[in-house]
Amino acid sequence: MNYQLLTQKMPSRIKKAWFISDIVEAIISLIVVGTVGNIFPIPYKEWVMPIVLIAIVAFFVGSLVLIPYRYHFHRYQIDGDAISFQRGVFFRKTVYVPLNRVQHIEIEQGPILKIFDLEELIIHTAATKHSISGLNPSTASELREEVTKRAKVADLNV
């Protein structure tokens, strides 16, 4: 079965941002588990703690190894009446958001995205929010303008 890929890929700098983010998450997880293990009495601590620490390290090493694969399927596309998002590694998901359901749009930039000069576009609907993380700042602004313009037209056509 062929999985139809959307047209727009993220800048390749997002792979470095994901790498740094995964490393930071691993360090924080190890610190939290180590602190909890030293503060609270844990039954069979000599067995449980090494297993938990090995599981955390294995999870994050796997996450780092899968970054190129994740990048391949992390895409978006804007059509006449909807914006689509694609993501996932093992379980891939494509979400279609009708433009007449868009309530407002935000652009955010956390510290890791700022290092790599990337931004996140967040599209809010009545039910939830959808995000495209890792856009160039100019692309994020253009996409925000395009979605806003098309959402107004779609709203008028309803």
UniProtKB/TrEMBL annotation:
- Organism superkingdom: Bacteria
- Can you give the residue ranges of the YdbS-like PH domain? 71-146
Arranged from A to Z, the UniProt key words for this protein are: Membrane, Transmembrane, Transmembrane helix
Provide the transmembrane region boundaries: 20-41, 47-67
Q: Which InterPro entries match?
A: YdbS-like_PH
Q: Which PANTHER family match?
A: UPF0699 TRANSMEMBRANE PROTEIN YDBS (PTHR34473), UPF0699 TRANSMEMBRANE PROTEIN YDBT (PTHR34473:SF2)
Name the record gives this protein: YdbS-like PH domain-containing protein
